[in-house]
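Good morning,

Attaching, inline, the C-alpha cells for the sequence recovery test we're adding to the shared suite. The designed sequence is right after.
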C-alpha cells in the first residue's frame, strides 16, 4: 500500500531471465502485487519471476500490446505502474513517481526518458527514432509529448474502462498515451526519469517497429 492505495506493477517479458531478476530484487515493500507477463519466453523468465514472488501470467501469443492487455486484466491494485523486464527503467524511483502522480491531478502519468542522461542507454538511431515518433504524435494529437515510446506509466486502474486499446504490438505504448490525452476525464502528464542501459538482448526492431508505430499513429488519427 502507498498512502492507502493498492499498488500493482505489471511487467511484460520476452526472454528477460537476467533483467527480471534484477528488477524484482529491487521492488519496494509498499508494492502489493507484481505481475510478470511471460510472452512465451524460451528461457527461464517465468521460473525466475515465480521464485521471486511475482504472479506469472502467461500470454502465448507474442506482442508487447498483447502482453500488457493480459497483465492489466489480471491486476487488482488501485494504481498500476508499468516498466520493462530489462532493468532499464528506474525501479528505485517508484515513490518519486507515485508522489508526482498523486500530486499531479491527472489519471495517467508517463515517465519520459528524453533527453537521456546516460548516453549508453539509447543508441543515436534509437534516440532519433524516438524524437521523430514523439514529434509526429505531438503534431497529430495537438499535445506536446517528449517521449511517446516510454514504457513506464503510472495510472489509475479504473480508467482502463475508458480507454480503447487496440494495438497488440509496440504501438500499444503510444496508444495508451493517446487515449489518456484525448479523454479529459483521464488527463495526461509527463515526468522526467533516468533511463539506463538494458540487461540482455533488445527485442525492439528499430526500423520495423518505428515504421509500424508511425503508421499506427496515422491510422489512429484518421479512424478514431
Ligand atoms: N518487442 C517485444 N517486447 C516484448 C514482447 N513481449 C514482451 N516484451 C517485453 O517488452 C519490453 C520492451 O521491449 P524492449 O526490447 O526492452 O524494447 P525497448 O525498451 O523499446 O528497447 C521488454 O521487457 C520485453 O521483454 C514482444 O512480443 N515483443
Ligand atoms: Mg526496454
Amino acid at each position: 500500500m502507498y498512502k492507502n492505495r493498492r499498488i500493482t506493477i505489471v511487467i511484460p517479458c520476452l526472454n528477460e531471465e537476467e533483467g527480471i531478476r534484477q528488477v524484482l530484487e529491487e521492488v519496494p515493500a509498499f508494492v502489493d502485487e507484481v505481475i510478470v507477463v511471460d510472452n512465451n519466453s524460451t528461457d527461464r523468465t517465468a521460473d525466475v519471476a515465480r521464485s521471486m514472488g511475482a504472479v506469472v501470467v502467461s500470454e502465448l501469443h507474442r506482442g508487447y500490446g498483447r502482453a500488457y492487455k493480459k497483465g492489466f486484466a489480471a491486476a487488482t491494485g488501485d494504481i498500476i505502474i508499468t516498466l520493462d523486464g530489462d532493468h532499464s527503467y528506474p525501479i528505485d524511483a517508484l515513490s518519486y513517481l507515485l508522489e508526482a502522480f498523486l500530486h499531479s491531478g491527472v489519471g495517467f502519468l508517463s515517465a519520459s526518458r528524453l533527453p537521456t542522461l546516460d548516453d549508453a542507454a539509447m543508441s543515436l538511431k534509437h534516440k532519433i527514432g524516438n524524437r521523430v515518433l514523439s514529434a509526429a504524435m505531438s503534431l497529430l494529437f495537438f499535445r506536446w509529448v517528449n517521449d511517446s515510446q516510454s514504457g513506464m506509466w503510472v495510472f489509475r486502474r479504473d480508467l482502463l474502462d475508458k480507454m480503447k486499446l487496440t494495438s497488440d504490438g509496440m504501438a500499444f505504448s503510444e496508444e495508451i498515451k493517446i487515449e489518456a490525452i484525448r479523454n479529459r476525464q483521464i488527463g495526461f502528464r509527463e515526468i522526467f526519469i533516468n533511463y539506463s542501459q538494458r540487461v540482455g538482448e533488445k527485442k525492439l526492431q528499430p526500423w520495423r517497429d518505428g515504421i509500424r508505430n508511425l503508421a499506427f499513429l496515422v491510422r489512429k488519427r484518421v479512424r478514431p
